[in-house]
Amino acid sequence: MKIINALIIGSCVSLAACGGGSSGGQGSSSSSSSSSSSSSSSSSSSSSSSSSSSSSSSSSSSSSGVVNNLPDKIKVNQLGFLPNAPKVAVVANTGATTFSLINAQGNSVFSGNLSAPAVWEPSQENVRKADFSSFTTPGTYRLRVAGLADSTSFAINANVFNDLHDAAAKAYYFNRASTELTANFAGVWARPAGHPDTNVRVHSSAATATRPTNTVISAPKGWYDAGDYNKYIVNSGISTYTLLAAFEHFRSFYQNRSWNIPESGNAVPDLLDEIMWNVEWMEKMQDTDGGVYHKLTTQNFAGEVMPHQTTSQRYVVQKTTAATLNFAAVMAVASRVLAGYEAQFPGRSQAYASAAVRAWTWAKANANVPYRQPTDIKTGEYGDLTFKDEFAWAAAELYLQTGQQTYLNEFFAANASPDVPWWGGVAALGYISLSTHGEGRMSGSDYNRVRNALIGTGDYLKGLQAASAYGVSLTVQDFVWGSNSGGMNQAMMLLQAYRLTGDRSYYNAAYAMQDYVLGRNATDYSFVTGFGHKTPMDIHHRQSVADNIEDPVPGFLVGGPHDGQQDACPGYPSNLPAKSFVDTWCSYSTNEVTINWNAPLVYVTAALLNP
User: Fold this and answer.
1) Sequence-distant (≥ 6) Cβ neighbours of residue 507 within 8 angstroms
2) What is the phi-psi region of residue 524: left when phi exceeds 0, alpha when psi lies from -120 to 50, beta otherwise?
3) 128: β partners
4) What's the longest Cα–Cα distance across the chain?
5) What distance in Å separates the CA atoms of residue 384 and residue 371, rounded to the nearest whole number?
6) Which residue among the candidates 225, 410, 563, 592 is catalytic per the annotation?
7) Tens of pLDDT along 566-584?
8) Which of 72, 150, 163, 228 is catalytic?
9) Neighbour-count burial of 150, counting CB atoms closer than 10 A to its CB (0-12 exposed, 13-18 middle, 19+ buried)
10) Of 540, 551, 562, 563, which residue is the catalytic one?
């Protein structure tokens, strides 16, 4: 079990202490979809530090305390389960037909029958499921199946995901640009300020008569996108929206929730404060004509150094249709949210509303401007060649912002379906907003059209989950770059169907993806740094590799397995899609972290805690 720095997320520092009695296409198969590269060779005492205890990957203790050497083939959420939620583990098919739940005293407290064996195509494993959902007594437990090592221990309690949520949200603080992270907020991960971004030059690809090449602009703040130190509007779009949606949908949950960031204790919830760090940067990326620069970047990726140690000149590069529409959508949502915080952010709501309209106007006049990487720029592209999804999303948000029917007409005219979202496919975000805020504003038929489309996506994903040997909605086709994010975005879409219908089966299908990323998967990893018995330690994240601290920054969801292996790293244990993962800095294609991968983890965890 990883021990989490108490400073990061509050007073609870370990599971024992807490227990208390895509539709595919998350990234291209080419390296251009990566925001990073291997090109160069986490409110208590601020003195607390992180440590870890290794899980036993090939042995476990029996109830008598004797270590056995049986294979560890019980896959289970390594944190645990909410009392009234589904509780399912995946078990290697050894011929056993029953399982037992063992408490901390070594006694069997529940037993049941394993499901019939079935093969999960992405990993080619023959497995059974152990379902103990009806057991609700809080405590710490293990699963036992004859012929296998006991599972790792896990908890059942109402707070089992609280610290996970807060750490996933605080991961954004650790990726802030333009500010020092001090020890009282960052603990052992404190670092000097990097990238003030007050002296950013306009690249020739973005030059205009008003702002010619090498014009200096200021665009501070924002989040480092991923394992690298650059900032990208397209990826900020879906990331910022997903966090804003979590804030809108679970407002009471966030009202007094704090995870010890510099703004904690002011009159603004911590999540909104964190979101604003990025929105204030995005605002500065709009040119005077309304268009929006695609990214703010150095010419090349930095090496394995801390932020303050990389001082190369930074540029804003090319204005694009995708960036401008992402900007328009986010600004419209931010305007909507900030309307309730006029005293804390005076004038921001109106300013963002105006910025959104100006961006939309530019995009309509420049409706097909894809990003083209300049020859002297070698950093992440986030390239996109089709824009009907971005037009649909932005139109939906501007309709809700302005009330003008023309925007809703544009949304429907785009004819973009609510597929599982990713940075290059964002139409579903517009559907989510319209389903949340459009009832009573849209005609009944238009609202039902939106509602039914979202439920249809939920039905499709629920069907995949029900048919899966692993009990998840991921199929072979979903094991692409950032597969973990794809799975969490599937969960987010399932939760929209649950919000619209109250049908618990959608919630349960979404919950299965939380189990997946926390250990019920073919790799035996909990994919969130610092949370679980076996978690990634050598992530592709420059701060984490360059800070000389053994543990990586906690709360980050790594990209996860897929068989592309674009980084050509040694050590991949398998070429099977669900097993092709390696915990090494080299593996930017499976072991990197990004802001858009963490966002659905934050949303889904909040949703599961607030059914």
Assistant:
1) 494, 495, 498, 608, 611
2) left
3) 91
4) 78
5) 7
6) 592
7) 999 999 999 999 999 999 9
8) 228
9) buried
10) 540
**Distance between CA 465 and CA 469 in Å, rounded?**
9
Question: For the whole model, what pTM was predicted?
Answer: 0.91
Q: Could you tell me if 49 and 34 are in contact, meaning their C-beta atoms sit under 8 angstroms apart?
A: no
Compute the Cα dihedral for 536, 542, 543, 546 and give only its sign. Answer: positive
Catalytic residue among 274, 551, 563, 583: 583
* Annotation says 583 is catalytic: yes
pLDDT (tens digit per residue) in 71-81: 568 999 999 99
Distance CA 401, CA 409 (A): 14
What radius of gyration do the chain's Cα atoms show? Answer: 23
Is 304 in the active site? Answer: no
| Beta bridge pairs of residue 126 | 119
Q: Write down the residue that tokens 């103990």 correspond to.
A: 132
Spatial CB neighbours of 181, under 8 Å, sequence gap ≥ 6:
173, 174, 189, 190, 191
| 540 a catalytic residue | yes
Cβ–Cβ under 8 Å, residues 578 and 28: no
Chunk the chain into consecutive blocks of 10 residues (it has 611) and report each block's average pLDDT, rounded to whole numbers: 41 29 35 36 30 33 36 88 98 96 97 98 97 98 96 97 98 98 98 98 98 98 97 98 98 97 97 98 98 98 96 98 98 98 98 98 98 98 96 98 98 98 98 98 98 98 98 98 98 98 98 98 97 98 96 98 96 97 97 98 98 94
Contact 516, 569 (CB under 8 A): no
